[in-house]
Design brief:
Layout lengths: L1 H4 L7 H13 L8 H30 L1 E9 L5 E9 L2 E10 L6 H15 L4 E5 L4 H13 L2
Helix pairs in contact: 4-5
């Protein structure tokens, strides 16, 4: 298995938890078939996640939310900004945008944040938690100016 899938899979917490779960179940454990995964387990899980996301999104109207953002780069030095919405009902990934190094400027980041805030509704966002990178400092100031 390790030769086929490389030794790095051993560092994957999902893989480690899966192996632990199988070992705790015992030698009688039978892995689900491809057909069962495709037609039953994955669709059921997808419906459960969609239901959760719908409940969390609907709750924003009455209990509001916090937007959290972070800029990160991958091994190819591509930059991304992830936006996550938190409310007392739960956390939902809102969006991810690929941004070039040059477009990490405050005005561009402000436009991204404004699109997410406008999508949720400015009256339903009670606070922003943003990266403390210098580009985000000006973004925060611009957002406060637009959404006092």
């Amino acid at each position: 298995f390790y030769f086929e899938h490389y030794i790095q899979c051993h560092r994957n917490t999902s893989f480690v938890n899966f192996v632990r779960g199988v070992s705790e179940y015992g030698p009688c454990y039978k892995i689900a078939s491809y057909s069962t995964l495709r037609t039953k387990l994955i669709p059921d899980c997808q419906m459960e996640v969609e239901k959760y996301v719908t409940i969390v999104k609907k709750s924003r109207v009455t209990i509001n939310c916090t937007l959290m953002s972070d800029i990160w780069s991958d091994m190819k030095q591509r930059y991304f900004i992830n936006i996550i919405a938190y409310s007392p009902r739960g956390v939902v990934f809102s969006n991810s945008f690929e941004i070039s190094k040059e477009r990490k400027a405050g005005l561009f980041l402000k436009d991204i944040m404004c699109s997410v805030i406008d999508d949720i509704g400015p009256n339903h966002v009670v606070q922003l938690i943003i990266d403390n990178e210098s580009n985000f400092e000006s973004t925060g100031d611009m957002l406060i100016g637009k959404y006092p």
